[in-house]
Amino acid sequence: MDNRAAILAHALRLFAARGYDAVGVQEIVEAAGITKPTLYHYFGSKRGLLDTLLEGHFTPLHQSVKQAAAYNGDLPFTLEKVARAYFDYAKTHRAFYRMQLALWYTPQQSEAYQAVAPWNEKLHQVIEEMFTHAAEQHGNMRNRQRPYTATFLGMVNTYIGLALNDYTELDDPLIYQAVHQFMHGIFS
Amino acid sequence: MDNRAAILAHALRLFAARGYDAVGVQEIVEAAGITKPTLYHYFGSKRGLLDTLLEGHFTPLHQSVKQAAAYNGDLPFTLEKVARAYFDYAKTHRAFYRMQLALWYTPQQSEAYQAVAPWNEKLHQVIEEMFTHAAEQHGNMRNRQRPYTATFLGMVNTYIGLALNDYTELDDPLIYQAVHQFMHGIFS
DNA sequence: CAAATAATGTACCGATCGGTATACTATCGC
DNA sequence: GCGATAGTATACCGATCGGTACATTATTTG
Predict the structure, then answer these.
(1) Mean pLDDT, chain A, integer
(2) Is the pLDDT confidence value at B188 over 80?
């Protein structure tokens, strides 16, 4: 593994375990077995390192969710695909998702939130557009796309958080139950 | 307002806005218009200040939730009381709940998590006992108290997070809908 | 009033923070 | 082989980190 990849891997592990603010640059370079100028050569700053980490993981997650969110007239089916996209990514990149969950509720004025906010908005928009298409058929959903999106993503992240702490498992029955539950909340 | 109260108020505001790790002791004492030895006189350490903040808010929240969680044979009714206890506290102490939400998903090895973990466990236990009592009547709930508790608290915190960002309002219809939705998830 | 204690400020501590000036080495295109 | 560029280390920067020794001032208690 080259130095750049080593820095990214150790930074992700440390950020996920103790948080962005609590981990110093010195600790990262020591874990990666290199020195500070190497890190600054590749990433420019601690914030640049975080940005690179986020881009490297949010890009494929965004791609995957975008494909899953293509609306075909069947809302529960589409929501199941989206939930599955999230769950799959969380299962295969646990450290990243731990970090991303901490960033989800991190204070808005913190540096880490500034870094993650554009990605959250991007993903939020993908889901919201899906609800907008669905609202063309289900009239009573109109003008509720934003709270629906926020609620759905909140539910998805809640379940992933539970799974990361071994309270549940992100399998197909959970996907079905979660979507079923969400749909029931909408239409009642 | 005396100095001790001023320190607590400004620390809470800053922690909620930018996070525990990102806010330095110097910044807190400057905001409160005092100097460091005064802070250390009252709280001993930055961690002691956080502990005092948490105790001051979690004690009444715990009391309120405990009363609400007294099970009387009607599970939806009890869950509505519990959700209302949480929502009421979040509405009247927004800064605290912002901080508490960030701490909820904060990495387990961070100092802030160590401070909040005992309170989270205490509240978790109150809800879990309520589910245990309910399971004496609803046999199919037995041995699922832990995931139910985690899911219910996750849902409550999700809705509070949405409300703090103006995605929804923590009113009675939302309480009814949330509990209804949760019950539907259990019994289907 | 006197002694004790609580509350506060001045000035400082070593350690760590994120970041960099400079130089050396390795690699690559010509 | 040579110049350019990428990659890396040594050694350092000022600022801030959490925390404190010590003196002073209020306040309480006998």
Answers:
(1) 96
(2) no
Over residues B152-181, the pLDDT tens digits come to 999 999 999 999 999 999 999 999 999 999
Structure tokens at A9: 């891997």
pLDDT tens digits, one per residue of B16-48: 999 999 999 999 999 999 999 999 999 999 999
Q: Give the nearest chain A residue to B13 (CA atoms).
A: A107
The reply to whether A36 Cβ lies less than 7 angstroms from strand D is yes
Cα angle for residues A30, A90, A141 (degrees, 5° grid): 140
Tell me, yes or no, if B14 comes closer than 8 A to chain A by beta carbon.
no
Residue B101, min C-alpha distance to chain A (Å): 6
Q: State mean pLDDT over A162-188.
A: 92
Query: How far is Cα B19 from Cα A139, in angstroms, rounded to an integer?
Result: 41
Whole-number distance in Å between A89 CA and C27 C1': 37
In this predicted structure, what is the pLDDT of residue A188?
73
Please tell me if residue A162 touches chain B, with a CB cutoff of 8 Å. yes
Total Cβ atoms within 10 A of residue A89: 21
Nearest alpha-carbon partner for B65 in B114, B122, B134: B122
Biggest alpha carbon distance in chain A? 59
Taken in order of first residue, the domains within chain A and their CATH numbers are 1-44 (1.10.10.60), 46-186 (1.10.357.10)
Task: Using an 8 Å CB-CB cutoff, list chain A residues near B186.
Answer: none
**What is the predicted pLDDT for the residue at A1?**
72
SS (H, E, C) A63-82: HHHHHHCCCCCCHHHHHHHH
Distance from the Cα of A6 to chain B's closest Cα (Å) equals 21
